[in-house]
Amino acid sequence: DTGVSQDPRHKITKRGQNVTFRCDPISEHNRLYWYRQTLGQGPEFLTYFQNEAQLEKSRLLSDRFSAERPKGSFSTLEIQRTEQGDSAMYLCASSLNIGNEQFFGPGTRLTVL
Amino acid sequence: KNEVEQSPQNLTAQEGEFITINCSYSVGISALHWLQQHPGGGIVSLFMLSSGKKKHGRLIATINIQEKHSSLHITASHPRDSAVYICAVGPGTASKLTFGTGTRLQVTL
Lengths: 113, 109
Known about the structure:
The complex is a heterodimer.
Chain A: E1 5-7, E2 10-13, E3 19-24, E4 31-37, E5 44-50, E6 53-57, E7 65-68, E8 75-79, E9 88-95, E10 103-104, E11 108-112
Parallel strand pairs in A: 2-11
Antiparallel strand pairs in A: 1-3, 3-8, 4-5, 4-9, 5-6, 7-8, 9-10, 9-11
Chain B: E1 4-7, E2 10-14, E3 19-25, E4 31-37, E5 43-49, E6 52-56, E7 59-64, E8 69-74, E9 83-90, E10 98-99, E11 103-108
Parallel strand pairs in B: 2-11
Antiparallel strand pairs in B: 1-3, 3-8, 4-5, 4-9, 6-7, 7-8, 9-10, 9-11
């Protein structure tokens, strides 16, 4: 097992464009989390899935953000009509069950010009 | 006031020094995590603890549930320990983490 992977690692886009990020969790992990980290700050929770069900969304996740985990394996995070304030590191993590250690991916760094 | 506060925000130490990073939290938790983040962004989980003390190599983490406080200690620090150390808590039965802003550690020769 190679751990949590994210793709792409870096994305530069122009304001107004749509972007999509992918996260592949550790294979047997049923919980998958998305966090966002801006420069100099700790990560902030965005949303999480148990299998394919999206169980909670932060109020940080505006209508322009959508996340899916269609088959309970990989997940995608889409941002529509990107804004400069969306520039951040988007981190994915997975865990086996509630309360277990979370394993983080390398992150996708988004820059919106 | 943030739910998770870390101190100091920045720390510079010389190789070999004993280092302590502190974390205080204001919510009820099921577990506290110490994470390490290197330049480039990757986060590695160092410890997850809900009581007492854990040790791994030169790293020691302690938690006092009554005082809502945890410390991360690094013995015999080395330049490769230079990173941002982040405290995070998992409140109650929820599994999402709430993070501190991190402590940036630089260890010099």
